[in-house]
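User: Just a sanity check before I run the rest of the batch. Below are the C-alpha cells for the first item. I only need the designed sequence back.
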C-alpha cells in the first residue's frame, strides 16, 4: 500500500519537529517494533533504543528536501528497525543468520549509512568542540546554537564592535575545522 496524503502531511510534520505528529507515529508504531524485537531475542530496552534510532533516521530523512517517502511511515520504520536489529544481532553474534526474505521490506541501507555517518560526524564535532577551549566554544555556541547576532555577541564577550566579534568567530571556526578534520582523518 502506497503513502496517503495524510501520511505525507504527518511526514512533513515530523520534519518540522511537531510534537503531536511524533507522538502519534510513536503510539501507532512502537508496539509492532517492540513485539518484533522482543520476539527476536531482544528486551524492551533494546526495542526502545532501536525505535528511537529509527525515529532519528525518519526525522533526518524528513528534513531532506530531495527525499520522497514512497511507502507508509509504518513500513519505513519497520524496515529501518528490522535492519538495525538484525545488524545488532549479527554484530553481537547472539545468533547466526542470513538476512533474506526482503520482499516486503523497504531498502533502507543507504538511509542507515547516512544516519551512521552523521552520528559519527556529530561525535567528532562534539569532541572537537570540547578541545577548542574558551572563549571559542562559548562564542560558537552563542552564534550557532543560541542564534545570537554579532552585536549581542560583541556586547556579551566584551569586543569593541560586531566586526571584531565576527573576526574572532572566524578564527574560532578555523581552529574548530582543524581539530575536526584532524580527528576525522584518524577515524
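Assistant: Here's the designed sequence for the first item:
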Amino acid at each position: 500500500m502506497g503513502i496517503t496524503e495524510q501520511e505525507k502531511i504527518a511526514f512533513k510534520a515530523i520534519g518540522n519537529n511537531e510534537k503531536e505528529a511524533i507522538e502519534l507515529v510513536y503510539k501507532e508504531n512502537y508496539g509492532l517494533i517492540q513485539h518484533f524485537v522482543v520476539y527476536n531475542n531482544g528486551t524492551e530496552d533494546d526495542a526502545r533504543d532501536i525505535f528511537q534510532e529509527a525515529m532519528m533516521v525518519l526525522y533526518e530523512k524528513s528534513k531532506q528536501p530531495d527525499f520522497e517517502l514512497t511507502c507508509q511511515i509504518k513500513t519505513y520504520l519497520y524496515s529501518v528497525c528490522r535492519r538495525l536489529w538484525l545488524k545488532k544481532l549479527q554484530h553481537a553474534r547472539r545468533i547466526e543468520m542470513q538476512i533474506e526474505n526482503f520482499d516486503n521490506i523497504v531498502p533502507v541501507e543507504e538511509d542507515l549509512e547516512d544516519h551512521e555517518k552523521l552520528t559519527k560526524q556529530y561525535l567528532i564535532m562534539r569532541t572537537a568542540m570540547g578541545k577548542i577551549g574558551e572563549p571559542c566554544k562559548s562564542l560558537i555556541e552563542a552564534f550557532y546554537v543560541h542564534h545570537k547576532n554579532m552585536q549581542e555577541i560583541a556586547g556579551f564577550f566584551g569586543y569593541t564592535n560586531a566586526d571584531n566579534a565576527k573576526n574572532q568567530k572566524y578564527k574560532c571556526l578555523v581552529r574548530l575545522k582543524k581539530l575536526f578534520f584532524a580527528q576525522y582523518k584518524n577515524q
